[in-house]
Design brief:
By secondary structure, this protein is of the alpha/beta class. The protein contains 21 helices and 14 strands. It is flat.
Length: 554
């Protein structure tokens, strides 16, 4: 309802002002919607904003009368208020399965996220990428977009060459119950220590990189084998975090199928190309001082060459492509965008995120100092189990374990996605597991409370009579959900959904605190139970779009 009504008002504003941008916003505490368009028209019309607002309000009142929207002015501001029918319709819509789904779009979206180097376990620094990306993917699907989520597998870089060398020269058998990616990390760390002791090994690693680019079958087999081994471990970690990829795209495929060489040939002919032993691009027109290297002096390509081939292929097979990248990739992401534009190809939209860390400090796979995502999940799950056991000791152990796992993943995913991507954050499990405020478990608990109310109520006939201010406030908050999904996919800001879900939980708990539900009678009781049912469904849809299980008991 919020989104449809917003568009009605926006259309009316455009019609009576002749302006494309009409500055319509949420009205906050004073109204349901508001506009400051009178300010932007003042200079053009040479009238005071207050006079313009009064004139516009008279016109808008006639245009919006049939929609049940009341128009008023507060000085130069124009406010819009919805009627009781809006509230009733909002609750009705929110009872439908899949509430929040938007109409289908035709344009295909390719979203790439995580794409961590397969040289050791995913750590807490990686999983912010995974959680931001997966939440965006869920929002795009809910918004009706055909979507493919990709993981770009780096199977040609120096780190993979080091792992491959390590398996041949410092073999370490996989331990019992050791995940594949943890096994790879042990080999990678051991190989780096050997290189530190004997720098001449670097030449052997360089030779492996030349062989892989030349298409040597045995080297290709070894590289793919160790990378696949690591990816098997990654897939388990991501599944435990409710993260899903549709397709794993291998970097080396763009060498084998000739796409990379074709891109290099095209770059070679650009006026910005520089041939000084290496092949590079002068990107000063995009504001970059350093050249963008494409091929080394020994004839081997760098990662950027394969990345350009990958993005050219993605751009030609999608209407919109989105990359989720860490802040340390901001420069190369911008260079990639610039180069693709020079080539006449589509450039990706890039979501840059700052890093999440733990109080323990920084991490390095090479040095063997990292806290894996697996360890983080296990630790938070143990703490969640203790919390659930304290709250619900009467539940069987198996049920407490099931709840604890859902709560732990909720704590991790929500705490990471609730912060806007451009801000760095420290994951604090005490705050993340707080059942009382600003956490995933708090939203889950609110959903479980709604389920409990409905279970206690038993059967009832739906009704839609609302007069109490808390009822109306909750219904209006529920109505905003589809608009939030729309905003997330337009602006690529998944934290907006996290904020909405928390605010909805707050609004529901405020309603329940001040408005009797089970103790009320007749149509009032039925209407309030209907509102609880709508809130429960909206909380469920919000949680699931955040990749969090909407459990019914806690």
């Amino acid at each position: 309802m919020f989104l449809e009504t917003y568009r009605q008002i926006e259309e009316a504003l455009r019609a009576c002002t002749g302006e494309e941008t009409v500055e319509l916003t949420d009205g906050g505490e004073h109204a349901d919607y508001a506009t400051t368009v009178a300010f932007s028209l003042a200079k053009k019309l040479r009238k005071s904003p207050m006079v313009i607002a009064t004139d516009l309000a008279a016109d808008l009142t006639g245009r919006l009368a049939d929609a049940g929207i009341t128009v008023e002015t507060k000085g130069p501001y124009i406010n819009f208020h919805v009627d009781a029918a809006y509230v009733q319709d909002a609750v009705r819509e929110a009872l439908e399965p899949g509430y929040g789904n938007l109409p289908a779009h035709a344009g295909k979206v390719i979203l790439e996220h995580t794409s961590a180097n397969p040289n050791g376990p995913l750590h807490v620094g990686h999983i912010r990428n995974s959680i931001i990306g997966d939440t965006l993917a869920r929002c795009f699907r809910k918004a009706g977009y055909p979507l493919e989520v990709q993981y770009y597998v780096n199977d040609m870089g120096r780190q993979i060459a080091i792992v491959s060398w390590g398996f041949d020269h410092v073999p370490k058998e996989r331990l019992e119950d050791e995940k594949e990616d943890h096994h790879i990390a042990r080999v990678y760390i051991a190989a780096n220590r050997e290189i530190e002791k004997e720098p001449a090994i670097t030449g052997e690693v360089d030779h492996l990189m030349q062989l892989i680019e030349q298409g040597d079958p045995e080297t290709q087999r070894k590289f793919r084998e160790v990378v696949s081994h690591c990816l098997d471990g990654f897939k388990v970690t991501m599944a435990n975090l409710n993260v899903v990829h549709d397709r794993f795209v291998w970097e080396s495929d763009f060498v084998r199928n000739g796409d990379m060489e074709r891109i290099i040939d095209r770059i070679d002919r650009l006026p910005q190309a520089k041939h000084e032993g290496t092949l590079s691009l002068d990107l000063t027109e995009c504001g970059f001082e350093k050249d963008y290297v494409i091929r080394r002096s020994d004839g081997t390509s760098v990662y950027a060459a394969r990345d350009l081939a990958f993005h050219t292929w993605k751009g030609r097979n999608s209407d919109r492509m989105i990359d989720v990248l860490g802040a340390d990739h901001k420069l190369i992401g911008s260079q990639l965008q610039c180069t693709l534009k020079l080539l006449g190809e589509k450039a990706p939209e890039i979501v840059i995120f700052e890093f999440v860390s733990l109080p323990e400090g920084s991490m390095s796979t090479r040095a063997g100092k990292f806290i894996s995502a697996d360890e983080l999940v296990a630790e938070v799950t143990n703490k969640a189990f203790a919390e659930v056991s304290e709250r619900r000791p009467e539940l069987p152990s198996e049920q407490r374990e099931e709840i604890a796992r859902a709560v732990a993943i909720s704590a991790i995913r929500y705490d990471i996605v609730r912060i806007s991507p451009e801000k760095s954050t420290v994951f604090d499990w005490k705050e993340a597991l707080n059942f009382e405020r600003q956490s995933g478990p708090y939203i889950q608990y609110s959903h479980a409370r709604a389920c409990s109310i409905l279970e206690k109520a038993g059967a009832f006939d739906e009704a839609f009579a609302y007069a109490d201010e808390h009822e109306i406030a909750l219904a209006k908050q529920i109505a905003r959900f589809p608009a939030v999904i729309d905003q997330v996919v337009r602006e690529l800001r998944p934290h907006l959904l996290a904020t909405y879900a928390r605010d909805l939980a707050d609004q529901f708990n405020t309603f329940y605190r001040y408005v009797p539900v089970l103790k009320s009678e007749g149509e009032t009781r039925a209407s309030r139970l209907t509102l609880v049912k709508a809130a429960e469904n909206t909380l469920k849809e919000s949680l699931e779009t955040l990749g969090i299980d909407a459990i019914s008991t806690m």
